[in-house]
Design goal:
By secondary structure, the chain is an all-alpha fold. The chain is built from eleven helices and no strands.
Length: 212
């Protein structure tokens, strides 16, 4: 029995990765009779590109589901983890696994999205205050500059900063959670490499603008 318990963290991580591998941009688009988001615009299977299809409803559903699949695995560990010997380290690994599932989904040939909504879901599960602070950062940058990519990059940079400076004020900082957030932030920046190039050139598409 003890040997089985030792596998529980890895089973939780695997389950989180599989949940994260559900590409809702593709699933929702197919269900609503829209074009595959991997065939137009930025070709990124995410809510922002689904919005370019002209369907706000599809984009909203995609955004919610992508965030939910990051939030749920972490919350399950929070709710039931103690019963199975799962601590903060497992919680951090599970959040990161769900995020990696979105980036490299096994069900979609490992060709996933950039992970902004899923990362937000993970952060909300770590702490709703951390998630709201990061979401507020995204909204402010997006509102004033109209670039989803720029908003995502700034939010990614600030997320670990918020968590570190919140230590002892709104939560007790855990090193494994810091590492998970830092890795997600670095991967988000890496996934936006092409966007960074377009931002520098001034050719990045603004929010609300359709692409053919």
């Amino acid at each position: 029995m003890d040997s089985l318990v030792a596998f529980y963290p890895w089973l939780a991580v695997l389950a989180a990765y599989l949940v994260g591998s559900l590409s809702f941009a593709v699933i929702v688009s197919r269900a609503m009779g829209l074009n595959d988001p991997r065939t137009f615009g930025s070709k990124n299977p995410g809510a922002t590109n689904v919005l370019r299809s002209g369907s706000k409803a599809a984009a909203i559903v995609t955004l919610f589901m992508d965030a939910f699949k990051g939030w749920l695995p972490v919350m399950l560990v929070k709710w039931y983890g103690l019963s199975y010997g799962l601590g903060d380290g497992t919680m951090a690994m599970v959040g990161l696994a769900a995020f990696l599932g979105h980036l490299f989904p096994v069900f979609f040939r490992f060709e996933g999205g950039k992970g902004v909504a899923t990362a937000l879901g993970v952060l909300l599960a770590f702490s709703w205050i951390l998630g709201l602070a990061t979401a507020a950062t995204w909204l402010l940058i997006a509102y004033f500059f109209r670039y989803s990519s720029l908003a995502s990059l700034v939010a990614a940079l600030f997320a670990p900063v918020y968590y570190i400076f919140g230590d002892g004020v709104v939560w007790a900082m855990d090193k494994s959670v810091v590492l998970a957030i830092a890795v997600m932030s670095l991967l988000l920046i890496w996934r936006h490499a092409e966007n960074i190039g377009r931002l520098v050139k001034g050719s990045e598409s603004r929010l609300g603008k359709k692409k053919k």
